[in-house]
Amino acid sequence: MKKENNTNKKAVCIMSGGMDSTLSAYMMKNQGYEVIAVHFNYDQRTQAKELACFENICESLHVKQKYILDLDFFKQLGASALTDTNIEVPTGGVEEGVPVTYVPFRNGIFLSMAAAIAEKEGAEVISIGVVEEDSSGYPDCREEYIQAMQKAINLGTKDDTKIEIKMPLVHLKKSQIVQEALHLDVPLELTWSCYKNEDKACGVCDSCRLRLNGFKKAGVNDPIPYA
Predict the structure, then answer these.
(1) pLDDT (tens digit, 0 to 9) for every residue of the chain, 227 residues total?
(2) Is 4 inside any structural domain?
(3) Which of 11, 29, 74, 110 is least surrounded by CB atoms within 10 angstroms?
(4) CDD domains given for it (predicted)?
């Protein structure tokens, strides 16, 4: 992996264990940033699997500093199929409007906590793997929203704190994400996207459908196991 010379610059990378955030972190490292990895346990259905993936990806990236943050707020809040087991994860294809797998203001909360870490660590970048065009319709994945969060973060931190939120995948299709990941030798076999299962991916939830379609259009096989 070719790296650009960018000595002593740090990027706080929000990493779920999924393909998008993993590629974003690899892109930051490829640009010469020291990756500070941040992962959130929020009682999501596949929490254990996502955490295991995060740990393995951090090892692959040779991450020196990482934060694993536990949030029970989302479980108490409910209102999402990812955190409330009484709400079924849809498997019938893309829903109209905002899907029930949307977790209320999740990325806003994640970015706020990442901003605190970035200020403490002296990092000038926060990386987040949001995808606008080919995502599941989440309002907190929109470029305009992330830009507004960047402005708010810089208004609410010390005067000498200057943080840029990088979202390198925001305008990519899933097939382009797969291709870029392969180009950068990202270990896609270590990533997980399924909303439902932790052993073998279900293949039918929105996230699995998007992932599988991306691999299909890229002309390569997905290396993770499916039921």
Answers:
(1) 555 554 689 999 999 999 999 999 999 999 999 999 999 999 999 999 999 999 999 999 999 999 999 999 999 999 999 999 999 999 987 667 899 999 999 999 999 999 999 999 999 999 999 999 766 689 999 999 999 999 999 999 999 999 999 999 999 999 999 999 999 999 999 999 999 999 999 999 999 999 999 999 999 999 999 99
(2) no
(3) 29
(4) QueC-like
Q: Is residue 225 part of a domain?
A: no
- Name the 3-class secondary structure at 164: strand
Looking at residue 80, the DSSP 8-state letter turns out to be S
Any domain includes 140: yes
Is residue 120 one of the residues assigned to a domain?
Answer: yes
Give the total number of structural domains in the chain.
1
Domain assignment of residue 90, given as a range? 10-218
CATH number at residue 50: 3.40.50.620
Residue among 223, 199, 190, 200 nearest 56 (CA): 190
Task: Pick out the residues of the known binding site for ATP.
Answer: 15-25
Binding-site residues from annotation: 15-25, 194, 202, 205, 208
Put simply, whether the predicted model's pTM sits higher than 0.90 gets the answer yes
Alpha carbon distances (Å) from 210 to 18, 26, 78, 80, 138:
12, 21, 24, 19, 14
Cα distance between residue 173 and residue 157, in whole Å = 34
Binding residues for Zn(2+): 194, 202, 205, 208
